[in-house]
Design brief:
By secondary structure, this protein is of the alpha/beta class. Helix content is 22%, strand content 26%. The chain has 7 helices and 14 strands. Strand 10 and strand 11 form a beta hairpin. The protein starts with 7 loop residues before the first helix and ends with a strand.
Protein backbone atom coordinates (compact mmCIF):
# COMPACT_ATOMS: atom_id res chain seq x y z
CA UNK A 1 0.00 0.00 0.00
CA UNK A 2 1.34 3.43 -0.94
CA UNK A 3 1.98 5.86 1.92
CA UNK A 4 1.12 9.53 1.78
CA UNK A 5 4.22 11.67 1.88
CA UNK A 6 4.50 14.93 3.81
CA UNK A 7 4.48 18.19 1.86
CA UNK A 8 7.91 19.18 0.58
CA UNK A 9 8.15 22.32 2.74
CA UNK A 10 7.24 20.29 5.85
CA UNK A 11 9.97 17.72 5.15
CA UNK A 12 12.46 20.54 4.67
CA UNK A 13 11.43 22.09 8.01
CA UNK A 14 11.92 18.81 9.86
CA UNK A 15 15.33 18.33 8.24
CA UNK A 16 16.33 21.90 9.11
CA UNK A 17 15.38 21.43 12.78
CA UNK A 18 17.36 18.16 12.97
CA UNK A 19 20.39 19.75 11.29
CA UNK A 20 20.39 22.84 13.54
CA UNK A 21 20.15 20.75 16.70
CA UNK A 22 22.95 18.48 15.44
CA UNK A 23 25.23 21.44 14.74
CA UNK A 24 24.59 23.08 18.11
CA UNK A 25 25.14 19.82 19.98
CA UNK A 26 28.35 19.11 18.07
CA UNK A 27 29.85 22.37 19.35
CA UNK A 28 28.27 21.95 22.81
CA UNK A 29 25.99 24.96 22.48
CA UNK A 30 22.57 23.31 22.39
CA UNK A 31 21.76 23.69 26.11
CA UNK A 32 22.90 27.29 26.17
CA UNK A 33 20.95 28.11 23.00
CA UNK A 34 17.79 26.56 24.46
CA UNK A 35 18.15 28.51 27.73
CA UNK A 36 18.63 31.69 25.70
CA UNK A 37 15.25 31.15 24.03
CA UNK A 38 13.47 31.95 27.30
CA UNK A 39 15.77 34.77 28.44
CA UNK A 40 13.57 37.64 27.23
CA UNK A 41 15.08 41.12 27.37
CA UNK A 42 13.14 44.37 27.71
CA UNK A 43 14.44 46.89 25.17
CA UNK A 44 13.53 50.56 25.60
CA UNK A 45 13.52 52.58 22.39
CA UNK A 46 12.96 56.30 21.86
CA UNK A 47 10.71 56.85 18.83
CA UNK A 48 10.83 60.49 17.60
CA UNK A 49 7.85 61.57 15.47
CA UNK A 50 7.64 64.87 13.54
CA UNK A 51 4.62 66.91 14.57
CA UNK A 52 3.90 64.93 17.73
CA UNK A 53 1.81 66.95 20.17
CA UNK A 54 3.28 67.61 23.62
CA UNK A 55 0.38 65.69 25.18
CA UNK A 56 1.65 62.49 23.51
CA UNK A 57 5.32 62.96 24.36
CA UNK A 58 6.27 59.88 26.38
CA UNK A 59 3.29 57.81 25.19
CA UNK A 60 4.61 54.23 25.25
CA UNK A 61 3.85 51.28 22.97
CA UNK A 62 4.51 47.73 24.12
CA UNK A 63 5.65 45.87 20.99
CA UNK A 64 5.31 42.07 20.85
CA UNK A 65 6.10 40.07 17.74
CA UNK A 66 6.80 36.53 16.55
CA UNK A 67 5.43 34.93 19.70
CA UNK A 68 5.02 31.46 18.13
CA UNK A 69 3.24 31.00 21.41
CA UNK A 70 2.25 27.34 21.06
CA UNK A 71 5.69 26.12 19.94
CA UNK A 72 6.96 25.11 23.39
CA UNK A 73 5.16 24.73 26.72
CA UNK A 74 7.68 27.07 28.35
CA UNK A 75 6.91 29.96 25.97
CA UNK A 76 3.73 31.24 27.63
CA UNK A 77 4.97 31.33 31.27
CA UNK A 78 8.16 33.14 30.23
CA UNK A 79 6.19 35.69 28.23
CA UNK A 80 3.64 36.36 30.99
CA UNK A 81 6.39 36.82 33.56
CA UNK A 82 8.09 39.32 31.26
CA UNK A 83 5.07 41.53 30.49
CA UNK A 84 2.95 41.57 33.61
CA UNK A 85 4.81 44.35 35.45
CA UNK A 86 5.54 46.60 32.45
CA UNK A 87 4.08 50.10 32.18
CA UNK A 88 2.80 51.32 28.80
CA UNK A 89 -0.14 53.08 27.16
CA UNK A 90 -1.02 50.68 24.31
CA UNK A 91 0.10 47.28 23.08
CA UNK A 92 0.92 46.46 19.45
CA UNK A 93 1.54 42.94 18.11
CA UNK A 94 3.11 42.37 14.71
CA UNK A 95 2.13 38.82 13.87
CA UNK A 96 3.28 35.21 13.79
CA UNK A 97 1.22 34.21 16.80
CA UNK A 98 1.33 30.48 16.08
CA UNK A 99 4.18 28.04 15.50
CA UNK A 100 2.92 26.17 12.44
CA UNK A 101 1.73 27.70 9.18
CA UNK A 102 -1.21 25.32 8.84
CA UNK A 103 -3.79 23.32 10.79
CA UNK A 104 -5.92 24.02 13.88
CA UNK A 105 -5.71 27.35 15.68
CA UNK A 106 -7.28 26.33 19.00
CA UNK A 107 -4.03 25.95 20.95
CA UNK A 108 -2.77 29.30 19.69
CA UNK A 109 -5.96 31.12 20.67
CA UNK A 110 -6.01 29.45 24.09
CA UNK A 111 -2.44 30.61 24.79
CA UNK A 112 -3.18 34.12 23.53
CA UNK A 113 -6.26 34.26 25.74
CA UNK A 114 -4.10 33.46 28.76
CA UNK A 115 -1.58 36.13 27.74
CA UNK A 116 -4.37 38.63 27.09
CA UNK A 117 -5.24 38.57 30.79
CA UNK A 118 -1.87 40.18 31.53
CA UNK A 119 -1.96 42.88 28.83
CA UNK A 120 -3.42 46.36 29.17
CA UNK A 121 -5.84 47.84 26.65
CA UNK A 122 -5.89 49.01 23.96
CA UNK A 123 -4.29 46.16 22.00
CA UNK A 124 -3.76 46.26 18.21
CA UNK A 125 -2.34 43.57 15.96
CA UNK A 126 -1.54 42.55 12.40
CA UNK A 127 -1.24 39.02 11.01
CA UNK A 128 2.01 37.35 9.99
CA UNK A 129 2.94 34.67 7.49
CA UNK A 130 2.31 31.92 10.08
CA UNK A 131 -1.19 33.19 10.86
CA UNK A 132 -4.63 32.39 9.46
CA UNK A 133 -7.53 34.68 8.60
CA UNK A 134 -9.56 32.35 10.85
CA UNK A 135 -7.71 33.89 13.81
CA UNK A 136 -9.18 37.38 13.33
CA UNK A 137 -12.59 36.80 14.93
CA UNK A 138 -11.21 34.90 17.99
CA UNK A 139 -8.57 37.58 18.52
CA UNK A 140 -11.11 40.37 18.37
CA UNK A 141 -13.39 38.46 20.75
CA UNK A 142 -10.67 38.66 23.45
CA UNK A 143 -10.08 42.37 22.89
CA UNK A 144 -7.29 42.38 20.30
CA UNK A 145 -8.17 44.70 17.40
CA UNK A 146 -6.69 43.28 14.18
CA UNK A 147 -5.79 45.98 11.64
CA UNK A 148 -6.26 44.69 8.10
CA UNK A 149 -4.93 47.42 5.81
CA UNK A 150 -6.64 50.04 7.95
CA UNK A 151 -5.89 52.57 10.66
CA UNK A 152 -7.06 53.87 14.03
CA UNK A 153 -6.10 56.90 16.09
CA UNK A 154 -4.34 56.81 19.44
CA UNK A 155 -5.38 59.78 21.56
CA UNK A 156 -4.32 61.42 24.80
CA UNK A 157 -5.18 64.87 26.10
CA UNK A 158 -6.93 65.88 22.87
CA UNK A 159 -3.90 64.96 20.73
CA UNK A 160 -3.70 62.06 18.31
CA UNK A 161 -1.31 59.87 16.35
CA UNK A 162 -2.35 57.55 13.51
CA UNK A 163 -1.66 53.84 13.99
CA UNK A 164 -2.08 51.78 10.80
CA UNK A 165 -1.61 48.09 10.12
CA UNK A 166 -1.13 46.02 6.96
CA UNK A 167 -1.62 42.35 6.15
CA UNK A 168 1.37 40.06 5.62
CA UNK A 169 3.80 41.25 2.95
CA UNK A 170 6.16 38.28 3.12
CA UNK A 171 4.20 35.18 2.06
CA UNK A 172 0.58 36.09 1.37
CA UNK A 173 1.37 39.49 -0.23
CA UNK A 174 -1.95 40.95 0.96
CA UNK A 175 -0.44 44.20 2.17
CA UNK A 176 -2.03 47.44 0.94
CA UNK A 177 -0.16 50.38 2.42
CA UNK A 178 -2.20 52.91 0.44
CA UNK A 179 -5.45 51.58 1.92
CA UNK A 180 -3.96 51.62 5.42
CA UNK A 181 -2.93 55.26 4.98
CA UNK A 182 -6.37 56.53 3.92
CA UNK A 183 -7.57 57.03 7.48
CA UNK A 184 -4.66 59.29 8.39
CA UNK A 185 -5.50 62.85 9.42
CA UNK A 186 -3.56 65.43 7.36
CA UNK A 187 -0.24 66.34 8.99
CA UNK A 188 -0.79 63.90 11.88
CA UNK A 189 2.16 61.70 12.90
CA UNK A 190 1.67 58.17 11.59
CA UNK A 191 3.06 54.76 12.60
CA UNK A 192 2.72 51.63 10.47
CA UNK A 193 2.55 48.12 11.90
CA UNK A 194 3.80 45.42 9.54
CA UNK A 195 4.76 41.85 10.24
CA UNK A 196 7.85 42.17 8.05
CA UNK A 197 10.09 45.12 7.13
CA UNK A 198 9.71 44.10 3.45
CA UNK A 199 7.04 46.76 2.88
CA UNK A 200 9.50 49.54 3.72
CA UNK A 201 9.49 51.20 0.29
CA UNK A 202 5.71 51.58 0.16
CA UNK A 203 5.61 52.70 3.79
CA UNK A 204 8.07 55.53 3.17
CA UNK A 205 6.44 56.50 -0.13
CA UNK A 206 3.05 56.77 1.54
CA UNK A 207 4.41 59.16 4.15
CA UNK A 208 4.56 57.08 7.32
CA UNK A 209 6.92 58.52 9.91
CA UNK A 210 7.74 55.19 11.54
CA UNK A 211 7.37 51.46 10.85
CA UNK A 212 7.36 48.77 13.54
CA UNK A 213 7.85 45.16 12.47
CA UNK A 214 9.38 41.75 13.18
CA UNK A 215 9.50 38.49 11.20
CA UNK A 216 13.30 38.15 11.01
CA UNK A 217 13.84 37.00 14.63
CA UNK A 218 17.04 39.05 14.27
CA UNK A 219 18.47 35.87 12.73
CA UNK A 220 17.73 33.79 15.87
CA UNK A 221 20.91 31.72 15.40
CA UNK A 222 23.70 34.23 14.86
CA UNK A 223 27.47 34.31 14.69
CA UNK A 224 29.42 36.14 17.42
CA UNK A 225 28.61 39.83 17.28
CA UNK A 226 24.99 39.11 16.34
CA UNK A 227 25.70 38.48 12.65
CA UNK A 228 22.65 36.59 11.30
CA UNK A 229 23.04 33.51 9.14
CA UNK A 230 19.69 34.27 7.51
CA UNK A 231 16.87 36.81 7.87
CA UNK A 232 14.36 35.11 5.54
CA UNK A 233 13.34 38.47 4.09
CA UNK A 234 14.01 40.55 0.98
CA UNK A 235 15.55 43.51 2.80
CA UNK A 236 18.89 45.26 3.25
CA UNK A 237 20.77 43.42 5.98
CA UNK A 238 20.77 46.49 8.23
CA UNK A 239 16.94 46.29 8.43
CA UNK A 240 17.13 42.83 10.03
CA UNK A 241 17.23 43.91 13.66
CA UNK A 242 16.86 47.09 15.70
CA UNK A 243 16.63 50.68 14.51
CA UNK A 244 17.09 51.73 10.88
CA UNK A 245 16.19 54.55 8.49
CA UNK A 246 14.88 54.61 4.96
CA UNK A 247 14.43 58.05 3.41
CA UNK A 248 12.59 60.17 5.95
CA UNK A 249 11.07 57.16 7.71
CA UNK A 250 12.36 55.58 10.92
CA UNK A 251 12.03 51.80 11.18
CA UNK A 252 12.42 49.31 13.98
CA UNK A 253 12.66 45.53 13.54
CA UNK A 254 12.24 43.60 16.77
CA UNK A 255 14.22 40.38 17.22
CA UNK A 256 10.96 38.91 18.50
CA UNK A 257 9.98 36.96 21.55
CA UNK A 258 9.53 33.40 20.31
CA UNK A 259 11.45 30.98 18.15
CA UNK A 260 10.81 29.05 14.95
CA UNK A 261 12.04 25.65 13.69
CA UNK A 262 13.99 25.03 16.92
CA UNK A 263 13.59 26.41 20.45
CA UNK A 264 17.02 27.98 20.47
CA UNK A 265 18.70 31.38 20.21
CA UNK A 266 22.38 32.15 19.88
CA UNK A 267 23.96 35.62 19.96
CA UNK A 268 20.47 37.06 19.41
CA UNK A 269 18.42 37.56 22.60
CA UNK A 270 14.62 37.36 22.61
CA UNK A 271 13.09 40.81 22.87
CA UNK A 272 10.08 42.75 24.11
CA UNK A 273 10.23 46.38 23.04
CA UNK A 274 8.91 49.51 24.71
CA UNK A 275 8.71 52.31 22.12
CA UNK A 276 8.48 55.71 23.83
CA UNK A 277 7.09 58.39 21.51
CA UNK A 278 9.03 61.65 21.51
CA UNK A 279 8.66 65.02 19.83
CA UNK A 280 11.14 65.16 16.95
Amino acid sequence: MATRRSPEWLRHGIKAAWFIRLCLRSVRLWRRARRNAFDIRIVEHELPLPGLDAALDGFTLLHLTDLHIDFDDACLPALIESVRHLRYDACVMTGDFRAKTYGPIDATIECLGALRGHLREPIYAVLGNHDSIRMVAPLQSIGVRVLMNESVELRRGGAGVTLAGIDDAHHFHLDDVDAAARGRRPNAPAILLSHTPEAYRDAERTGFDAMLCGHTHGGQICLPGGVPLTLDARIPRRFGRGRWHYGRMLGYTSAGTGTSIVTARLNCPAEITLHRLRRA
